[in-house]
Each structure stands twice: as structure tokens, then as C-alpha cells.
Design goal:
With 316 residues, the protein is mostly beta strands. The chain has four domains: 85 residues, Baseplate protein-like domain - beta roll fold (Phage tail proteins - horseshoe like beta roll fold, Roll), CATH 2.30.300; 77 residues, Baseplate protein-like domains (Phage tail protein beta-alpha-beta fold), CATH 3.55.50; 80 residues, Phage tail proteins - horseshoe like beta roll fold (Roll), CATH 2.30.300.10; 59 residues. Helices cover 13% and strands 45% of the residues. Strands 1, 2, 3, 4, 5, 6, 7, 13, 14, 18, 19, 20 and 21 form a 13-stranded mixed sheet that branches. Strands 9-12-11 form a three-stranded mixed sheet, with no helix packed on it. The chain has a three-stranded mixed sheet with strand order 16-15-17, with helices on one face. Strand 20 and strand 21 form a beta hairpin.
Length: 316
């Protein structure tokens, strides 16, 4: 049984069992994983809730902070809706102090912009140092760390489901197989698969303005076989002042990432995690190793499901 455990502003702990609707979302595109719960409820209204945990028996599925609670009363009875985000939401909610770093390494930026919010685990291929790194006003703490990682490692960081920061390239060794082929008895069975090809996502060419104000260099997509003609002109952000091509590169990567995705709906609580490599074997896509880019646990009148969005690891 699913149960919400919450700490109120009064310091007391509250247990609210058996939600009628659940949606918990983990995604590589945001450090803030989210939870939406709905309950049918009796008893006195709850005080303002501060922290929330979703339990399945002894297993903690989600831990975070309440953003909103809403209680309604009507002819059908009373209902309670809870919206919460994981600790990574603090990295989006807090603006970074403008600053110029000299010879700062990955650990320095992590300790200054991520660690203060209770996120203590960092996995990087190696610690790298930047000679000069500028933090502009108006950047969130997460945007600062992302800019540093893109500049130094050529990829964006992401938070796993246990709020650990990862910067390494996605694992290509499959942690699970998704297939309805009877010849694969250990595979995770799906209820549906959906392949989406979004050619409209791809940017073919980015032209970069230099320090003299001239658009003197450019980068092009690796997906030239798609025949896309979609050009952009950019002025690199201050964080990329010494490596302006890093800004263009991450924009091309994001646009290419949006081209191919595979959606899979699996019954129950599927044993796959955000960032896992998954081998999908099906006539729809052949045999292809993809990365779990988004994982949604949902429960409604149809029961409990795990919905996966699988992406091409080449662009992560």
C-alpha cells in the first residue's frame, strides 16, 4: 500500500494512506523531481505541510518538500491534493551570487552552489579546473553548475532518484530488457510502446558572435542526413566567455536529443531507475540500447504503472 508521510509546520508527523491518484516524475532534464497525490479524506484539515515522503511498505519512493496542498469539500466528499518537489528544487529556487572564480575546480563549484542545499553526492569522471569562470546575476544555483559542467566536461549534469549529482556519460550496459518477445523470458513486458521522431527539434547550424561583435564561427549538427535547415545566431553567455563553442555545442546537443524518443508503459513498479541503460527489442525499433531520460510512476483507476521516456544516449 502507498502511504504519504508528511511533517507539518507544527512539527508533527502525519500519515495519509492510500492515495486515489499518484504521479511521481523523475527526469534528467530537471534537478527537481516532482510528486502529485490525491486522496479522499475525512477528519480535521491538515496544518501546512513542509516535508513529504511517499512509502510503498518499507521502501521510500519519493522524498521532498511540499509546494502546495489543497483540500476541497463537495457533494462527493472531501479531497486532498499534495504537490511536492525533491530537494533538487532548491537549486532552481535560489539565485546564485554573482562572482568571478579564478582557478576553481569542479569541487569548488559544487561546494559553493550545490552542497549548501543538502545534496552531498557528486560523481564526475575526474576533477577539472577552469582558469576563469564568471557567474552572472540572475542565474540559479543549478544553472551555474550546469554551465561549469558543460564547459569543462561537454555535458550537462543531472540528479538521480536519490538526489546524487552525476556528470559522467550514460552507462551503455543494459540494466534491463524491455520486450514482449516470448523468447526473452526475463524481459520487462510492456503495455504499449510509442516511437516519436521530431525533426522539428533539430537545429542544423549555430553561428557564434566573437568578442569583436562579428559572427565569425559556426557549429553544425551531426544529424545532417535529416536534411534540416534551421539556423540560429547566438551571443555566448558570460560563463562561456573563454570557450564560446561550448554554448553552441550544448544547444546543438539539446536540439538533437529531442529528435528520437521511445515511450514505454510498463505494469506496476518497474525495476528501472533514471539514467539506466535499457535494451528495447521490438519490431517498432529493432534492438536498441536507450537511456531512461524520464520515469513516471502513476496510479489511477487503471492501477499502478511505470511510464518511461527513453532517449538516445549519444546526445546526453
Amino acid at each position: 500500500m502507498l502511504t504519504l508521510w508528511a511533517r507539518g509546520a507544527d512539527g508533527a508527523r502525519y500519515a495519509v494512506p492510500d492515495p486515489v491518484a499518484v504521479e511521481v516524475t523523475w527526469g534528467m532534464d530537471s534537478p527537481a523531481h516532482s510528486m502529485e497525490l490525491s486522496f479522499l479524506r475525512q477528519g480535521p484539515p491538515l496544518p501546512p505541510l513542509v516535508e513529504a515522503e511517499l512509502h510503498s511498505g518499507e521502501q521510500v519512493l519519493f522524498r521532498g518538500f511540499c509546494d502546495q496542498q489543497r483540500e476541497e469539500s463537495g457533494p462527493g466528499g472531501r479531497s486532498l491534493q499534495i504537490s511536492a518537489r525533491s530537494r533538487g528544487g532548491l537549486l532552481l529556487d535560489n539565485e546564485a551570487q554573482p562572482k568571478t572564480y579564478f582557478r576553481a575546480d569542479t569541487g569548488d563549484i559544487f561546494r559553493a552552489h550545490v552542497l549548501p542545499y543538502g545534496i552531498t553526492r557528486l560523481e564526475v569522471p575526474r576533477v577539472l579546473s577552469a582558469g576563469l569562470f564568471e557567474v552572472q546575476k540572475g542565474r540559479s544555483e543549478w544553472e551555474v553548475f550546469c554551465a561549469f559542467c558543460m564547459r569543462m566536461y561537454g555535458r550537462l549534469p543531472w540528479l538521480d532518484s536519490r538526489d546524487g549529482v552525476r556528470v559522467a556519460a550514460p552507462d551503455r550496459t543494459p540494466a534491463a530488457v524491455v520486450s514482449n518477445d516470448p523468447a526473452r523470458p526475463g524481459a520487462l513486458r510492456y503495455q504499449s510502446l510509442c516511437r516519436t521522431l521530431r525533426r522539428s527539434s533539430v537545429v542544423s547550424r549555430i553561428v557564434i558572435r566573437d568578442r569583436d561583435g562579428n559572427y565569425s564561427s559556426a557549429m553544425e549538427t551531426r544529424q545532417k542526413d535529416l536534411g534540416v535547415q534551421r539556423r540560429r545566431f547566438i551571443i555566448p553567455a558570460a560563463e562561456y566567455a573563454t570557450t564560446p563553442t561550448a554554448d553552441a555545442f550544448q544547444r546543438l546537443q539539446r536540439s538533437s536529443l529531442g529528435f528520437y524518443s521511445l515511450g514505454a508503459v510498463l505494469p506496476g513498479l518497474a525495476p528501472v531507475e533514471l539514467g539506466d541503460a535499457v535494451l528495447v527489442a521490438d519490431p517498432l525499433c529493432g534492438q536498441r540500447v536507450l537511456t531512461v531520460y524520464q520515469r513516471i510512476l502513476c496510479r489511477d483507476a487503471r492501477g499502478l504503472q511505470t511510464r518511461l521516456t527513453l532517449a538516445d544516449p549519444e546526445y546526453l
